[in-house]
Write a structure and sequence with these properties.
The structure is a single chain. Helix content is 25%, strand content 26%. The protein has 9 helices and 16 strands. The strands form 6 sheets. The protein has a 4-stranded mixed β-sheet with strand order 11-12-16-15. Strands 1-6-5 form a 3-stranded antiparallel β-sheet. Helix 2 runs antiparallel to helix 3.
């Protein structure tokens, strides 16, 4: 029988690139594979035909020889059919393609009895811890209780009853795979009985019922460093859930929620607050006492201080996280205008007003607009 042209077999042009060849072959392999067409001899022959064509055309040297001599390049002493072992053997290349198409179910040549592992890594856990503002600033240690799955002590994570062991799977003989012959292919499928592990738990542990883990409560001392912020995550490696079949444990993530302060606002490691003063205090100057997070401190307000002026108390802010030093405390002065005055107070203000002249003409918003933005 005259063999068809390899390019025609794959339905590609003679200048097709590697990706076009691979795409064409994948499509045909999916269509004609014996596992998808059991008992169909014609489909099996088609599959052999397109596999041979792809194996030749995907190799630059073989493709060059085929383009020059046609099928004669692989006949005779130096040639051979790629599936009978002569001339060239690209089973590894075809195995890669089949792996792309069908996962691990195909084995080109007998090797690769790989068992699946029962061992699984445990889940990561999250714990939300709420802190007072001062606790986040200065740091604190808190004991928390979490519920998690831990390896069963009675069976040590095997899932089998005490003194018992997992039995060899009788379905696959402990190989983890079941092998079937499909034409010239040896087809390996994961054993449906043992899930590919090659073993079965016949006598499950009475404590964990074969699950290998039990749920328990566990206490952990959380060390919160000074200077943490909202949504800071602290990771405790291996403090999550234990893995199945004595697998490695996951991690625990403690996520911090920091309560707001009654008058301090935080910006990085700096603290901000507003201090109200009266018009006479702003005009004549005064000394104010302010309560910081570390105790009282004083601010000297010079005469003629305008509303919105800021005073910085260095080192009175938040400690730098995992570093030396602290941020600052910024105090903004706000001059309050009284809303209720006595008759005597009004008379005094009128007398003062007669001695003060202010040009009531528009000016740039400047500082007042900035102050407005801060508090809006």
């Amino acid at each position: 029988m005259t063999k068809l042209d390899f390019y025609e077999v794959l339905s590609v042009s003679r200048d097709a690139n590697d990706q076009e060849l691979k795409t064409a072959y994948r499509k045909l392999a999916m269509q004609y594979h014996p596992d998808r067409n059991p008992g169909d001899h014609a489909a099996e022959e088609k599959f052999k035909e397109c596999s041979e064509a792809y194996q030749v055309l995907s190799d630059p040297d073989k493709r060059a020889a085929y383009d020059r001599y046609g099928h004669a390049a692989f006949n005779g002493g130096g040639g051979g059919n790629p599936f009978t072992g002569g001339g060239f053997g690209g089973a590894q290349d075809l195995g890669d393609i089949f792996g792309d198409l069908f996962g691990e179910m195909f084995n080109m040549g007998g090797g690769g009895n790989r068992k699946a592992s029962r061992v699984q890594r445990g889940r990561d856990l999250r714990y939300d811890l709420t802190l007072e503002f001062e606790e986040a600033v200065f740091g604190i240690e808190k004991e928390i209780t979490i519920r998690r799955m831990e390896t069963c002590n009675d069976c040590k994570g095997s899932g089998a009853a005490k003194g018992k062991a997992a039995a060899t799977c009788t379905q696959c003989g402990g190989r983890g795979q079941q092998r079937f012959q499909q034409g010239f292919f040896s087809v390996a499928r994961t054993c449906t009985v043992c899930g590919g592990t090659g073993t079965l738990i016949v006598d499950p542990c009475s404590t964990c019922r074969g699950e290998t883990r039990v749920q328990t409560e566990h206490k952990i001392l959380v060390k919160v460093p000074a200077g943490v912020e909202q949504d800071t995550r602290i990771r405790y490696q291996g403090e999550g859930e234990a893995g199945k079949f004595a697998g490695p444990a996951g991690d625990l993530y403690v996520v911090l929620n920091v309560k707001a302060h009654k008058f301090f606002e935080r910006d990085g490691d700096d603290l901000h607050c507003v201090m109200p003063i009266s018009f006479p205090q702003a005009a004549l100057g005064t000394e104010l006492e302010i309560q910081t997070l570390e105790g009282p401190a004083s601010i000297k307000v010079p005469e003629g201080t305008q509303s919105g002026r800021e005073f910085k108390l260095r080192g009175k802010g938040v400690p730098h996280l995992n570093a030396h030093g602290k941020g600052d405390l910024i105090v903004q002065i706000r001059v309050q205008t009284p809303t209720k005055l006595s008759r005597a107070q009004k008379d005094l203000l009128r007398q003062l007003g007669d001695t003060m002249v202010v040009e009531n003409t528009p000016t740039s918003p400047g500082l007042f607009e900035k102050v407005k933005e801060i508090f809006s």
